[in-house]
Amino acid sequence: MYRGGLSRGRIAELTGAPALTVGYHLGVACAADPGLRTAHEAAVGGKDRQVTARGLGRMKQLLAMVQETGRFPSLTADDVSERTLAAWLRRRRREADAGTLAPAFRDGLDVLPGWRGRPRAAADEARWQDRLAALAAYRAAGRDWPRHKATVAGEEHWLGVWLHTQRFKLRRGELGAAKMDALDAAVPGWRAGRQRGRKSGGRS
């Protein structure tokens, strides 16, 4: 079935076998028969130009790392080789989302449950967008910028803490351009915030 162009997932569906089991046996079969993967890729439309010896090497390194550590590589890791793997994986995720991922990479990475998904990152992004919408509504109601001091409570406090965090990240160069643009569009003036009621010529 694999030689005929069926993916690991499709074979699992047809046979009723667990996808991990199918992936394991395909790995063994491809190691024993180097021409098997080429035949598979030819059956699904020809060998993809994205698949290079270096790319296959990166995938093997990634599989070994995940098996050894139980986690995916991080873009913020101290180790350069781990950051390189994380960047490579990010590109494969984008290709998978766009439907352009090479079959060789797709089948190889599919042995890692959840490799395409980033549920924590998605949840964090959704939470950030919710906070932005809440801040925009708060300002639209005619209120001043929320404060983050401990003496402030309720909605003003948690919005103030969130806004303070965005300003802190901006000063440190850690706030992404997309988020800066979103803040500028939704709540203009957020970078400066309160003017503390100063008047021209007044004492600070």
From TrEMBL:
UniProt keyword annotations, A-Z: ATP-binding, Helicase, Hydrolase, Nucleotide-binding
Pfam families in UniProt: HA
Gene Ontology MF annotations: helicase activity
Helicase-associated domain boundaries: 125-185
Keyword hit for Ribonucleoprotein: no
Gene3D superfamilies attached to this UniProt entry: 6.10.140.530
Protein name per Swiss-Prot or TrEMBL: Helicase-associated protein
Organism: Arthrobacter cavernae
